[in-house]
Write a structure and sequence with these properties.
Blueprint: H1 23-44, H2 49-68, H3 73-96, H4 101-163, E1 168-174, E2 180-186, H5 194-197, H6 200-206, E3 215-219, E4 225-231, E5 255-260, E6 265-268, E7 275-278, H7 285-298, E8 302-307, H8 316-323, E9 339-341, H9 344-364, H10 366-372, E10 385-390, H11 393-398, H12 402-417, E11 423-429, H13 440-445, E12 448-452, H14 462-465, E13 482-487, E14 490-496, H15 502-511, H16 521-527, H17 529-532, H18 537-544, H19 584-600, H20 626-641, H21 649-660, H22 664-677, E15 680-683, E16 690-693
């Protein structure tokens, strides 16, 4: 068989015609050009003076261009003399003959001389350029050094006067954001940095810094050094929009939570840490929670579960973009959070699911952790971390209500046991007091802490949030969205939360739609139906009633039920539900309700034609049904039986759940009506709200 030899290709040197001339190529080009011109001129009888005229023009042109380039006199001389010498040789050679040994030898000597002079001049120009750059740098350094020396002397004298400590300034670094500077100083003897930190407010006043600017002392490179951060521009006063960059993030690389007073972003690392967010009403806490949820939504290895017993308001903006469709995780737009609970029952279900997932992970991923040689679950997009955001969770932990105490126990179980398995919490609180932050578990595990003050002083004890930190005062951050933040990686200091709008939340939900991970298969199996059916219509119906009744479109079909994406009420279906035969218990309940009506006369239904429409769940389809009437009377009976201590909506709903199946939202509506018409009296607010029948109320404090 014949074999075919493949030709081998060799790469020859490639000539770069666009490159400029160096000393060798420049001299070679000049000499060969002069020889060609002299030979041609001698053969054709060209007047020799023409060559001299061309050389003089070239010398003048290069002199002008060299002066424009601000090159040295040596370069000007070289270029002009090269043109004149070349032109002179060409004129002589045309007159005497260019192909003689004398002419060729003199041309070679001329070329070598031009090349040597060009090389020398090039080196001289390089050295001259470097010297000019160095001179400019020395001038800038001298100016900066003079400014820094002035600052150093000023602050050495100030620290001595205010704190009684004489420091030695080693360096001063201006911040890239031009909002302040950092002083690196050496402390005398056994002095510690906190002796300066405690006088930060006095130093700020002595320096006449603007409001919102502070002096913060932090540890230096060793215990005998101190870093003094001085902010000179107030970045806390105005609103700072949330960045339009929705690029992917990770739990391992940190999640941005705002900007410090020097304008730098603050990364927070929550792989092993829980977080605590404190902020009174009006401080911007809700907005900050949304920025936290935005960071979680951008992370490719985080699933966010939200508990908000205040109608789920913290999580609804992140769910509504997906509820425009059928609201399931398999729809075109997935919710920005993975689960939302607004009721006690759903919250307890979520926490129980988290505990089951964590315990199952401890068993099923033992081999994976052994291969990775770690005792922490390797969190990734395939095995995502679960972040539980619990609005006013600290108040739940401090509540004395029996139902809230059960919920608090579940929260503490998650905090205590699930760190290694990638389940962490972010709790919020309304105030920084010992009553709210008294739980040792929260103080120990929530090492990433935020306190939004908004200038509020009452109930804002910063020593409860940042124990051991000195010099922090709420008056330093008198702006909405401003406060203090401290993490294990950075000492507590001033910061500003970004401002995020509802429209931007919708944009983030759509932009991060493909980034959300799925719960890993073993964890999903452990979570069971409680997790798999979290977006069922029956469990998300309350999320969909976001349009008040008086804003519903008018028309002949305005009252018709909506089949797609709405409430699936059996009373509104075309096929009536089969009647349930009455039992002895039903008869006994009806007799009991009749006795209540006869004795107290408080159970008459209001006229449905004159009842004021409310922007909430208005289940009017059931108002004229006997089932709803019986459930309402049973609820009133539970309220009356509660006595002077009263009861809440959740307790009444649980009492009616087995026999009547009444939802908590329906009970809330009844209690509101009764509070308005005087049948019941509302006492307390928030999670401590309870209702007392008017017959048992003795004139205590009430809130309508």
């Amino acid at each position: 068989m014949a074999t075919t030899d493949h030709p081998t290709t060799t790469s020859a040197p490639v000539w770069d015609w666009s490159a400029g001339h160096g000393p060798v190529t420049g001299a070679l080009s000049a000499t060969t050009g002069a020889l060609a011109l002299a030979t041609t001129g001698a053969a054709t009888g060209m007047p020799p003076t023409w060559a001299m005229a061309v050389g003089a023009a070239g010398a003048i042109g290069h002199t002008i261009s060299t002066l424009r380039e601000r090159l040295s006199a040596r370069t000007v001389t070289l270029r002009a003399s090269s043109w004149l010498l070349g032109a002179g040789w060409t004129t002589w050679a045309m007159a005497t003959g260019p192909l003689t040994w004398t002419a060729l030898g003199s041309l070679a000597v001329l070329g070598v001389g031009i090349g040597t002079a060009a090389r020398s001049t090039s080196l001289y120009e390089d050295a001259r350029e470097l010297e000019l750059i160095a001179l400019a740098d020395r001038q800038v350094a001298a100016e900066l050094s003079a400014e820094r020396r002035t600052l150093a002397a000023e602050w050495v004298e100030r620290i001595q006067r205010v704190c009684g400590i004489t420091v030695t300034v080693l360096a001063i670094e201006k911040w890239p954001t031009a909002t302040g500077f950092t002083i690196d100083a050496e402390l005398p003897g056994a002095t510690t940095y906190d002796q300066i930190a405690k006088d930060s407010a006095r130093l700020s006043a002595d320096a006449r810094l603007p409001h919102g600017c502070t002096v913060a002392a932090t540890p230096g490179i060793h215990q005998g050094r101190v870093l003094v951060d001085v902010s000179t521009v107030n970045v806390l006063a105005g609103e700072i929009p949330y960045p339009a960059d929705y690029s992917p993030l990770s739990i391992h690389t940190g999640l941005p939570w705002g900007v410090r007073s020097d304008g730098r972003d603050i990364p927070v690392y929550l792989r092993e840490q829980c977080a605590l967010v404190v902020g009174p009403t009006g401080s911007g806490k809700t907005n900050f929670v949304h920025t936290v949820l935005a960071g979680f939504a951008r992370a490719t290895d985080i699933l966010t579960w939200v508990i908000d017993l205040n109608a789920g308001s913290a999580g609804l903006p992140w769910v509504r973009p997906a509820l425009d469709g059928d609201g399931t995780p398999d729809s075109e737009t997935r919710p920005g959070i993975d689960w939302l609970a607004s009721s006690y029952e759903e919250a307890a279900l979520m926490l129980d699911t988290a505990v089951r997932v964590g315990k199952h992970r401890k068993v099923v991923y033992q081999d994976l952790m052994a291969r990775a040689d770690t005792d922490l679950l390797p969190v990734s997009a395939q095995i995502p971390q679960i972040m539980l955001v619990i609005d006013e969770g600290a108040e739940i932990l401090a509540s004395n209500d029996p139902t809230m105490r059960k919920l608090a126990a579940k929260i503490l179980e998650v905090v205590r046991l699930m760190r290694a398995m990638g389940i962490r919490t972010v709790l919020t609180a309304l105030g920084a007091t010992g009553a709210v932050l008294g739980n040792l578990m929260i103080r120990r595990e929530a090492k990433a802490r935020v306190c939004l003050t908004g200038g509020e002083v009452e109930g804002m004890d910063l020593s409860k949030v940042f124990p051991g930190s000195r010099g922090l005062k709420p008056e330093q951050a008198p702006y909405k969205g401003a406060g203090f933040i401290g993490t294990p990686e950075s000492t507590p200091g001033l910061f500003k939360s970004w401002r995020i709008t509802p429209r931007q939340i919708t944009d983030i939900v759509h932009a991060t739609n493909t980034l959300h991970p799925r719960l890993d298969e073993p964890s999903a199996k452990a979570a069971g139906p409680a997790y798999a059916r979290r977006w069922d219509t029956t469990r998300t119906a309350w999320m969909r009633t976001t349009t008040p009744a008086d804003e519903q479109p008018a028309g002949p079909n305005a009252g018709a039920p909506t089949r797609s994406g709405g409430l699936n009420l059996s009373a509104l279906r075309d096929t009536p539900a089969p009647a349930t035969p009455a039992t002895d218990e039903d008869t006994l309940a009806a007799r009991f309700m009749a006795q209540i009506d006869a004795e107290f006369g408080t159970t008459n239904e209001p006229d449905t034609d004159t009842r004021e429409e409310r922007p909430s769940l208005n289940l009017s389809a059931f108002r004229n049904e006997q089932t709803d009437s019986e459930a309402r009377q049973a609820a009133l009976a539970v309220l009356l039986a509660a006595g002077p201590d009263g009861t809440g909506a959740s307790a009444i709903a649980r009492a009616l759940a087995e026999q009547h199946g009444t939802s908590r939202q329906t009970v809330v509506g009844w209690l509101k009506e009764w509070a308005e018409d005087g049948t019941a009296v509302r006492i307390g607010t928030g999670t401590k709200t309870r209702y007392v029948h008017h017959r048992h109320h003795r004139g205590g404090p009430a809130e309508g």
